[in-house]
Write a structure and sequence with these properties.
This protein is mainly alpha-helical. The chain is 81% helix and 0% strand.
Length: 86
C-alpha cells in the first residue's frame, strides 16, 4: 500500500469491508461478521498500545471507545449528508 496516511487508511478499510463481504457471501450472518471484526479490532488495538502480553488501563479502554465512537459518528454524518443530497 502506498500513498498518504489517509490513502492507506482508506485502502485498509476497503480490504476489511471486502473480507467482511466475502464472509457474508459464505453464509455467515452479518451480525456475527460485525461482532468478529469488532473483537479483532479490540484485540489488535490492545496489542498496538500494550503489546502481546499487556492490557489497557481503564483510561486506555475509554480512549479507544471514544475513538470508535468518533468514527461511528463520522460515518453516520456522512450517510446523513449523502441522503440529504440525494
Amino acid at each position: 500500500m502506498t500513498g498518504t496516511d489517509d490513502d492507506i487508511h482508506t485502502q485498509c478499510m476497503q480490504r476489511f469491508i471486502e473480507l467482511a463481504n466475502s464472509m457474508k457471501e459464505d453464509g455467515i450472518d452479518t451480525r456475527l461478521v460485525s461482532a468478529g471484526m469488532m473483537t479483532a479490532s479490540a484485540i489488535y488495538a490492545t496489542y498496538v498500545f500494550a503489546g502481546n502480553d499487556g492490557r489497557l488501563a481503564p483510561a486506555g479502554v475509554e480512549k479507544l471507545a471514544d475513538g470508535y465512537r468518533d468514527q461511528l459518528e463520522r460515518v453516520q454524518k456522512a450517510k446523513e449528508e449523502k441522503l440529504a443530497g440525494a
